[in-house]
């Protein structure tokens, strides 16, 4: 065996070992980095509202990471307890009435409030199931998530197309952005995979597929309520 072949084999082995080690280390390192940056970011914001004489570096002589996070959690708990009472609800209502008279601030506040209530609600609506839909043209399929049966004014205007459903078509690799589409149910292929598996497929750009060998028995979800087709003139 030639020296060049042995050298290439050694380099390939080193490369494979490095990639294998990187695959093991990267998730942990990235997680620690993200958590550390979030803690540092929150400390930088919260400690600006605390007098300097009460900072850990002033009282103890050294910095203590995470103090801002603890203060924020305690403040949030106190505010949650306070707003449950009559006085707290009255003050919140009074503050919202002040915000309502501010044109720009009103729009931002209402949007943020609606998003927060949707995300933090105990009864947050979730997607019903994953599906395949032809997008952006016939013959090309994309993974989407079924939201619900199209109702209200939109459902009435589109009733002539048969039963319509609302779906969310996420983008890759950031599934928090995407498109809201209203499509006929007959043009959608419903999938058996879980919502989490479909989200992993989207985030990984098709690199992570659900393992069919590990597929567990699933209870079929009840079908979405259907709407009768509008009578055609």
**Which sheet architecture does the biggest sheet show?**
5 strands, antiparallel
Major β-sheet strand ordering: 4-3-2-1-5
* Beta strand %: 5-15%
Q: What letter string, H or E per element, gives the SSE order?
A: HHHHHEEHEEEH
CATH A-level architecture of the domain at 129-214: Roll
Number of helices: 7
**Structural class determined from secondary elements:** alpha+beta
Q: Average the pLDDT over all residues and give the rounded result.
A: 81
Give helix % range: 40-55%
General form: flat
- Regions with little confidence, pLDDT below 50 for 5+ residues: 216-223, 226-233
Descriptive account of the structure:
The chain has helices at 3-46, 56-59, 67-82, 86-100, 103-120, 152-157, 195-203; strands at residues 129-134, 141-149, 164-170, 178-184, 188-190. It has a domain at 129-214: SH3 type barrels. The chain has 7 helices and 5 strands; from the N terminus they run H-H-H-H-H-E-E-H-E-E-E-H. Strands 4-3-2-1-5 form a 5-stranded antiparallel beta sheet, covered by helices on one side. The chain is 48% helix and 14% strand. The longest helix is centred in the N-terminal third of the chain and has 44 residues, at 3-46. Mean pLDDT is 81; it is low at 216-223 and 226-233. The protein is an alpha+beta fold and 233 residues long.
């Amino acid at each position: 065996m030639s020296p060049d072949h042995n050298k290439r084999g050694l380099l390939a082995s080193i490369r494979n070992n490095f990639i294998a080690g990187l695959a093991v280390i990267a998730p942990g390192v990235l997680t620690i980095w993200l958590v550390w940056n979030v803690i540092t970011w929150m400390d930088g914001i919260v400690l600006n509202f605390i007098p300097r004489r009460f900072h850990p570096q002033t009282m103890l002589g050294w910095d203590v990471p995470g103090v801002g996070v603890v203060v924020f959690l305690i403040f949030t708990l106190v505010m949650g307890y306070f707003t449950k009472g009559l006085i707290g609800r009255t003050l919140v209502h009074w503050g919202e009435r002040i915000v309502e008279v501010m044109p720009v601030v009103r729009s931002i506040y209402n949007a943020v409030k609606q998003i927060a209530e949707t995300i933090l609600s105990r009864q947050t609506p979730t997607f019903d199931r994953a599906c395949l839909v032809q997008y952006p043209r016939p013959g090309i399929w994309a993974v989407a998530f079924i939201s619900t049966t199209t109702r209200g004014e939109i459902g009435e205007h589109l009733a002539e197309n048969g039963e319509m459903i609302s779906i969310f078509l996420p983008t890759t690799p950031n599934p928090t952005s995407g498109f809201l589409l209203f499509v006929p149910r007959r043009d959608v292929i419903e999938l058996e995979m879980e919502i989490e598996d479909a989200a992993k497929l989207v985030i990984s750009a098709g690199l992570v597929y659900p393992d069919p060998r590990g597929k567990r028995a699933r209870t079929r979800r009840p079908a979405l309520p259907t709407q009768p087709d509008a009578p055609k003139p």
